[in-house]
Amino acid sequence: MSRRPARLLAGDIVEAIGRVRTYTAGLDHAQFTADQLRIDAVVRNLEIIGEASNRLPQETQALCPELEWPKIVGLRNRIVHDRFGVDVDIIWQILQVDLSPLHSAVSRLLAQLPSDAD
Fold first, then answer.
1. For the whole model, what pTM was predicted?
2. Residues 22-52: pLDDT tens digits?
3. Exposed end of the chain (fewer CB within 10 Å): N or C?
4. Could you write out the DSSP letters of every residue in 33-56?
5. CA distance to 4, 44, 47, 63, per residue, from 35 (Å)
6. Would you please indicate which residues are annotated as catalytic (active-site) residues?
7. Which residues, in sequence order, are CB contacts of 103 under 8 Å at separation 6+?
């Protein structure tokens, strides 16, 4: 596994959330579920979020105890290993409920990490 610094991994999460927000801006549930291209783009960025979360050192994750890191990583694993079992309604629910708190928490985390943090 590569040794990407924690600060860059946290930045990857924030960046991927920004892309998801851009891809879904102004869409309702019906529009989202009807657009396979957007679904694919969103799912790919959720994979990135999960992978970056998985690679964050535990001591860095501990700085955001309110986040359920195993669930974030678990979503990534489910997407990657069960590509045909992705439930678009669950993805939509994640976007509506979980994305903003994740962005806020990881943005705070990013502000705490020195530029050379591992």
1. 0.91
2. 999 999 999 999 999 999 999 999 999 999 9
3. N
4. HT-HHHHHHHHHHHHHHHHHHHHS
5. 33, 14, 19, 37
6. 76, 81
7. 14, 17
